[in-house]
Specification:
It is built from four helices and no strands. The protein is mainly α. It has one domain. Helix 1 packs antiparallel against helix 2 and helix 2 crosses helix 3. The longest helix has 25 residues. It is flat and about 50 Å long. The mean pLDDT is 83. It holds the Pfam family Got1. Belongs to the GOT1 family.
């Protein structure tokens, strides 16, 4: 193989996958808090293992990225309010 993935990166990829899966299941089951929390923990831990902890910290704390994260949070909040109003 030309490029091999280390064991840490394989674990990180798996954790990111579990994070996406648990977040999706949490949204399907009407925003179940436990599943969403597990999804967030798995996803952030996986990103930390893939990028490295220092790079991940810089990604989430740069001033330019904070504005984007705030916009994403606002979009997520609006979508969840629309979804909840449609379901009941």
């Amino acid at each position: 193989m030309a490029y091999e993935i280390s064991e840490i990166k394989k674990i990180g990829i798996g954790l990111v996958g579990f994070g996406i899966l648990f977040s999706f299941l949490g949204m399907i089951i009407f925003f179940d808090r436990g599943l969403l929390a597990l999804g967030n923990i798995f996803f952030l831990t996986g990103i930390g293992l893939l990028l490295g902890w220092q790079s991940m910290w810089q990604l989430f704390t740069k001033k330019a990225n904070i504005k984007v994260l705030e916009q994403d949070f606002d979009r997520y909040r609006k979508l969840s309010i629309c979804f909840l109003s449609m379901t009941g």
